[in-house]
Hints:
Layout: H1 25-39, E1 50-54, H2 66-73, E2 82-85, H3 91-104, E3 111-115, E4 124-125, E5 140-141, H4 151-156, H5 162-172, H6 177-197, E6 207-212, E7 215-219
Helix pairs in contact: 1-2
Amino acid sequence: xxxxxxxxxxxxxxxxxxxxxxxxxxxxxxxxxxxxxxxxxxxxxxxxxxxxxxxxxxxxxxxxxxxxxxxxxxxxxxxxxxxxxxxxxxxxxxxxxxxxxxxxxxxxxxxxxxxxxxxxxxxxxxxxxxxxxxxxxxxxxxxxxxxxxxxxxxxxxxxxxxxxxxxxxxxxxxxxxxxxxxxxxxxxxxxxxxxxxxxxxxxxxxxxxxxxxxxxxxxxxxxxxxxxxxxxxxxxxxxxxx
Length: 242
């Protein structure tokens, strides 16, 4: 059996601590689910046999099967199960692949798949005391990188964060800073062009952000790219990576 993507929609992409910082991850995930139902009124919501969502953090608002919570918040019936997938940065795409695989295997006929993350709202976490009257306390920031590190993992593989790993990859494959900057600048230009043409607006479901005292702000555009992005960043020769 073949699997087809019938429709797609997303929320705007926000900056860390940006316009979407007040929105819970489960509420954020419910918005495109609700928008899909509105865009396809001919579909009976009870026909959805699975909701797959990728989520890498799962330490705060997104805990306890965020796919299931988002499905219920979006108005899908209780008969629609939810599955939360974690492959770290590839979690959303893994959810889409898993849903397609289930369709091809004949297990389901109609699913919703995607991903959700709010790095801004990633909490600090504290482990429980390991001994009675233990006065030692640790606290970990779950925004990015490792926490509750297994000493064996540290000894055998190291616990580099994603930015550190990116530096290692650049060194190993000799990706110079000039090429990285050029690639990033080209991506910014393409995103700006897609926003200006209105093409990206077709795939974005606006998000109403509460501001307090009954006020709301509608966020309907990605907070990137930065309008003032240039390749002239005062780069010194030692930053070329060559």
